[in-house]
Amino acid sequence: MTTPPNEFFAEKRTSTIELPPGYTELPPGVIGAELLHVDNIEATAATQVRVRLDRGVIDQYTDDIQNGAVMPPVDVYREENSERNILADGFHRHRAYINAEHKEMWCWIYPGGTHEALIHALGSNAEHGHRRSRADKRHAVEMALKDPELGALTMKEIADVCRVHRNTVRKIQNEHLAGDDDAHNVQDEKHSRKPEDPTDDDIRDNGADVTQGDIDLEELRTAVKTINTMPYNGTAAADKLDLTKDDIADCELASTWLADVVILTRNREAEETPEREPGSDDDI
Predict the structure, then answer these.
(1) Which among 112, 158, 110 has a CA at the least distance from the CA of 138?
(2) Which of 68, 191, 199, 251 is most enclosed, with most CB atoms within 10 A?
(3) SS3 state at 110
(4) How many C-alpha atoms does 50 have within 13 Å on its Cβ side?
(5) DSSP labels for 62-97?
(6) Structural fold of domain 7-125
(7) What are the extents of the domains in the chain?
(8) pLDDT, tens digit, for every residue of 195-219?
(9) Residue 91: how many CB atoms within 10 A of its CB?
(10) For the whole model, what pTM was predicted?
(11) What is the pLDDT of residues 93-138, one digit of tens each?
């Protein structure tokens, strides 16, 4: 049977590309995989979204590499006919390879230059790797607002790029506008779209000042809702999910955190509830 042209080229493309250990195919959007010298990877502030790198994470990665571990490939962008390899995701791993005195590391190659690398970097580590801090998320939004192209997007679009809640974008934009009336021309989605039935975001988004507590509470509600809507309980999850030691540690930390919230809140409610006097109507 003759192989269809598209499948033929796909087979030829993957068969001629050497892949990193443990991988059988290229991730979506990746055009190649290469073992690059660490000095040939541009790790600059232009695409470094974190406020600072975590020394503890770097040291742990360094020890792992020196003990023979092969880190997952980092994400780099390269324009056509260019020799620049712009790092978008993997700054901790890149620094660890340098500290471990390893000359080369595996990289996924994406098409594009600094701007494409920045867009990729703004949403990195939202769901995997070393999770972003609150300051990292803020820095991502600020970088997006300063970019001429990204800064012209609606609040929801910027939030989607940075993988944060839209209220986070609103709060930071308002702070910038308060300090400088000519800061950035970011359009609110509700002014740019055609009238339509209100969404949940529109109902919550009443134009009032948003505090960091509001943002944190929204993220907490989203996380809890995600867990509560899973099609099985925790007992079944232990069998269905291939949890690593790190996953289990994260779950344990989250459960302790939630338990503290519930216990403290319940205790406060009990203290605030007045004791009933004997013979009151409630006792009848």
Answers:
(1) 158
(2) 251
(3) strand
(4) 18
(5) HHHHHTT--PPPEEEEE-TT----EEEE-HHHHHHH
(6) 3.90.1530
(7) 7-125, 134-229, 236-267
(8) 444 444 433 444 445 555 655 676 6
(9) 25
(10) 0.58
(11) 999 999 999 999 999 999 999 999 999 999 998 777 788 889 999 9
